[in-house]
Every structure is written in C-alpha cells, then in structure tokens.
Amino acid sequence: MATSSRSEDLLGQKWDRCVADTLIKIGGGLTLGVVFSAIVFKRRPWPLIFGMGAGMGMGYSNCQHEFNEPFLVKADKILCSFVFQVKPKSQGNSEQPAAEAN
Amino acid sequence: MLRISTRLRPHVTSRVVRGRGGGGVGRRFQSSQSGRGGVGNGLLVVAGSSTFVAGLVGYAAWSDDNRRKVERGIPGSSYVLSGLLGPLAEKPPVTEEQGLLKKKLDREKKKKPKEVESAPAPAVEEVKPESAPLQEVTPDPAVPVDAAEVTTSPPVPEEKPAVISLEERLASSEVSQDVENAALSQALQDLAYQAQKELTGALSAAEDAARVVQQHAEKAYQAIDGAQDKEQFEAVAELAVERNRLVEDAHKRIAAAGEAVEKFREQVSEGQQSGLTKENPALIAAEETLVEMKYAVDKARGMILEAERDSKVVSSYKALVEAGREQFEAEVRSLLPEVKLGETSDKLTQDELNLLLAHAHRKVLHMQTQLARLQTMEHDRFKEALARQRSEDSQLLEAKVETELDRQRQQLDVEYKKRVMDMKEELEGELRSQLKRQAAAHSDHLADVLYVQEKDLENKWSSILQDKVQSEKDTYLSSLAKIQGQLHGLQSALAMRADVDKAALSARELWLACESLRNALRNSGEGAPSWEEQLKPLQDHISAIRKASGGDSNPYVEAVLASLGEDAVGRGVYPEEALRERFIKVERVCKRVAMIGDNGGSLLRYLLSYIQSFLVLDAFEYLPGSEVRNEEVAVDSLSIYDILARARYCLEKDDLCMSVRYMNLLRGEARNVASGWLKEARLTLETRQAAYALLAHAAATAVQAL
C-alpha cells in the first residue's frame, strides 16, 4: 500500500519511518560497532552499544526532527508591505493550510 | 343592340347597316308588292278583280268595236277574249268598184287607220300587240290588201310580281339578280342580233320589192300609155310576177322581222317587269334598238305599202285603161259584132272602117265633150282632189308626224330612261358613298360617344369600386389587425409560456442536476471497495449544472460553481460516511497526540500523550446544554479531548459543519493530524453548501417557473 496521503496516517507513517529508521540505524550502528568492535576495538561490546546507541540516538533524533517538521517556520521570503491593501505574499508556504500566522 | 354594335368594328357596322338598308329597302319594296294583304284583304282583292274582268269581257262582247278597244287597251286580252268569245270577225273587204279616184281615195282612207293602227306607236309601258304576219298578198291588184290584223301575238305573260320570300330574296337577291341580268342581257343581245338580221333582210327585200314594184309600174305605165304590145305586157306580166314574188318575200321577211322584234319586245318587257332585272342598263339599250327596229320594220312595211300603193295606182290605171279598152271593144263589138279586134284579117272593110271611123269620131266627140266636162269639172275636182289630197297628205303627214313624234318620243323616253338610269346609278353610287361616309361618321361618332361614355362609366364605377374596395380593405385590415393583435398576443403569450416552460424545463434540469450533485455528494460510490474509489469527480455534474443553468448566463450559478474547489470538481468529494469513518481514526490519532501543542513536541511527549490517550475516557455523551443552545463558548478552554468529543458528538448527530467547526479548534499536532480530514470535510461541506445553494436556486427557479 502506497503511502496514504491522509494526514492521520501521516503520523503513523512517521512513526513507522521513525522506527524503521531507528532500527536501521541501530542495526547500522550495531553493524558498525560490530565491525569496529571486531576490527578495531577488539571485540569490545562498547562499539556495539555505542553503535546501537548512536544509531538509536540518530534515529530518535531523526524521528524527533520529523515530528517537529510541521511546526518549523520556514521563511524563504516574507514580504511585508505597509500599504493598506496588506496582502502578504509568501512563497513556499503551501503546506500550511491551517496556519494562521502566514 | 347598341352594345353589340359597339363591339363591332365600324366598317362591319356600316356594312351591316348598308346591307340592312339595302335589304330593307328591297324588302320593303317587295313587301309592298307581295304582302298586299291578309286573308280578308286577299278575298276582297280576288272578288274585285274577278268582277272587273267579267265586266270587261261583257263590254268586249257587246260589240266588236268595244272588243277591239279592249284588246287595244289591255295587252293580252285578245287571247282571253278570243278564248271566251271566239275570234274577232274581220272587216269585210271593200270590193265595190267605184269611181277610180274615189276608190283610190277610199282605199287611201281605209289604209290610213290601218297604218295608224299598224304604226309603231307603242309606249314601252303599254305594249300593243303588233301586226304579225300579214295575210298573203293577193295577186289581184283590184283587191286591196287589207292588213288582217290577226292579233295572234302571244300574250305577254303577265309577270306576276315575284312572290319571293324574304329570306330567299335576301339570300339570293344579289346572286339571282346578277344571274338574271346576265341571262337577260344575253337573251336581249341574241334577240337583237336576230331581229337586226331579220330586219336587214326585210329591209333589203322591201327595197327590192319596192324597186321592182316601181319598175313594174313604170313598165305598166309605158305599156299602157304606149303601144299595147304584147311583149311589153308580157314583160309587165313577168315583172308583175316577179314583183308579186318579191312583195310576198318582202312581206314574209317583214313578218319574220316583226316576229323577231316582237320577241325582242317581249323579252324586254319581261326583263322590265321582272323585279330582278328591272335595272339592267341593257334593257334601255334594248329598248332603243327595239324602237329603231320597229321603226325600221314599219318603214319597210311603209315602203312596201307605198310601192304597192303606187302599183295599185298603176294597176288601177291599167284596170281603168283595160276597162276602157274593153268597153271600147264592147262598143265596137256591139256595133260590129262580128268583128273582133285584132283577131281576123288585118284589113277591115270600108264600111267597117267608116263605121269604125264614125264611131271613133263620135267617140272622140263624146270624149271631147266628156273631156270638156271633165276639164270643167277638173278644176273643181282637182281642187277637191287637191283638198282631199291635202287632207290626206295632211293626215298622212300627221300620221307620219305622229309616228315620227312617237318615235322621237320613244327615243326621248328611251333616252330619258337611260339618263334616269345613269343618274340613278350615279346618284345611287353617290348615295352609297354618302351613306358610307355617313355610316362611317356615325360609327365614328358612336365610337367616340361610346368611348366617352365608357370612360365616364369606368371612372364612376372605378371610383365606386375603389371606395368599396377601400372599405373592404379597411374592414379586412381592421379585422386583420385585430387578428394580428390577437396573434401577437397569442404569440407573446406562447412565447412567454414557452419561455416559462423553457425556464421550467431548465429549472427542472437545473434542479435535477443539482439534485444529482447532491445525490452524488450523498450517495457517491456506493458499493465501492474503498473510500478513495468512492471518489467520483463532480465535473460531469458541474458541467451538467452549468449546462442546465443555461451556460454561463446565470451569475449565481457561476459564482457558486466557481466557489467549488478544483479538487472537488476534478477529484470529487468524500461522502459523509467516509468522513465519519475517517473521523474515527482521526479521533484516535488526535487523542494520541493530544499533548503536542503548536510548537511541536519531543518524542517523549508523544509517548506521554499516547499513554494519556489510554487513560482519558470519553468526555460525554451529550453536548452541554450551553453549546446546544449555541451560546458563547470559551474556545480556549476546550482541550483536545473536549473538542474531539464534541466533534464526535456532532458527527454522530450528522452535523458535519459543527464538527468541522469544533475540529477547527484543534491545535498543534492534532490539527496536523486532523488537517486532512478537515480539508476533506471542509471540501465536502463547501460542495454540499454549493449543491444546496444550487438546489435552492433551482427550486426557486422551478417554483418561479411553475
């Protein structure tokens, strides 16, 4: 099933992505840790954990960022004109349908 | 009649007129002759004429003189009378011997009436039967020739007035006239020729006869006066014979000529009396020739008579001489009975001679005395004779003069007739031309008058016609205008009605389209497996609505339709069911992220809100009364859960609008989560609103149309 375009599904998708990403990162970290631990760090567990943790942390961070994304104020251009026909034009704000403060 | 004649051309009319005129004239003339009376009138006429005829016959029967008068007066009566009374007794011939001169004179006297009778004195109107063949001339010169008038001239056929019917006459007048005229001319010519021939023959014969008679007379004179030679006498006798023959021949010729002339005259009279050929100019010429012929015949006859008279004189003289001689012979015989003069011996005895001488002497003396007496009486006698002769001559002269006069009269008559004919022709021609002119003028005048009249009438009637036509036109036009008004009214009403109907139709169509839109919104995609597939684009509906609303003419519809979003039109909108079902998930998710505010949250917060969502129960089942009553609500005091609960409640009450209103109050992540739903719901609501607006409009239009 393709990514549903519904907004309520977005969160789920995000979570899915997040988890997947985290897992991947963990795996990746783990792998790297393993690799590093195996190769560099003489089979110590801390690269694994480090890797896992780094992976988890990256994942978490990404996840966080992804979840924060809608709330970020992206202001490419903000035109403010003081003519009484105030009509602020802002490009790039197409994804803010319910944003009051445009 | 006038009408018809106006249609005829003038020359036709004139011809008709002339024909009618000519025919009418002839008809009139004819009718005056033929239509002399009806039945009663006819009876009267018959009775009268029969009485008249009987009277005439009786009168003629009374005495011969009367009969002769009647025969003379009425042509053809001799035939009838001879039939009834027997032939006319001839006059007894006078044969008594009288004195020589007296005899001669008497004969002359007797001959004159005959001559007068036989003189050519017929007027052309009263045709007298001329003496036809004379009886044979007796060789006896002592017997005077009497012209025995045997009136055997055939009766002139009475020409009854040709009772020709009107129609026959009219039909064949011209033709028969011409035919008759031609026939008549031919006949006349033939007869004239014949008569002329006869006449010339007769004349020549008469001349010869006269000449021979004269010769004979001379010879006789000579013979008698001179020596009494036998030879001479024989010659005389021969001549006499010849003379007789010639005279006979001449008489015959004359008779023939007379007959021919008679025939000619008959033809002429026939031609004259026949109505058809009366005006033949040949007739007049024929009359002239007739007159001349008669004159010639009579002249010939006269010549012969003269010659005969002379010869009679000669013969009488000869007779006298013979008588004297015989008497002398008788006397001598009485004296000398035995002596026959000139028979016995040549010589006579002396006694006889002496006796003869004495007798002769005595005779001479006697003769002388007689002579003396005669001489004495001669004078008187002479005078008497002269007087008689004069009277005779005068009578003769008179007769001649009369004949001459008659002839001249006849000539004049003929000339007069000719002139009259010519003039008549001329005048008739002129009259005809004048009549023609008159007729032409009359016809022209008629034509003019008729033309003027026609114009007048035309004008009058055309004006009347115009008025009538105008009035008719007016009434017609008025009625037409009325009808037109009605028609216009009808048309406008119908047009209005049509418009109304059209509007109604369009309204219905619009309504139907809107209804279909509404139904599409409500029931779209039933039976479809998923909500997405239930999306049906509304383009068709929109276009149908647009079409039903009359294109782009309806501003309201246009505005409304313009308000619809592209998504709605192109993709379609979710029905309420779909939204409701979607709301379930939305609510769940929103509950899970209820703690995340406008500024976002960490993951921990997400976790917490997730846990919170398990712990929070449904707010309520019913909306608080204040909100039901739509009182003011402090929107900031509502939490996500409240909002969701309210929205759910409204949704359960099928109040999507309220639910959307409530959901709009969401903030933070919940809003993001519900944004899709909101959008869809809003879209649906918009579309629904538009559909309802259109439907309302359609309904209103339909109501208006009704």
The H-and-E topology of chain A, N to C, reads as HH
Stretches of chain B where pLDDT falls below 50 for ≥5 residues?
A: 1-36, 116-164
Our estimate of the beta-strand percent of chain B is: under 5%
Count of helix runs of chain A: 2
Structural class of chain A: mainly alpha
Helix-residue proportion of chain A: 55-70%
Number-wise, the strands of chain A total: 0
Structural class estimated from helices and strands of chain B: mainly alpha
Total number of strands of chain B: 0
Largest β sheet strand count, sense and barrel closure of chain B = none
Strand content of chain A: under 5%
Seen as an oligomer or otherwise, the chain set is: heterodimer
Query: Which range best describes the helical content of chain B: under 10%, 10-25%, 25-40%, 40-55%, 55-70% or over 70%?
Result: over 70%
Rg of chain A, please?
Answer: 21 Å
Biggest contact? A-B, 18 and 25 residues
State the end-to-end CA separation of chain A: 34 Å
Unreliably modeled segments of chain A: 92-102
Shape of chain A: elongated
What is the rounded Rg of chain B?
Answer: 80 Å
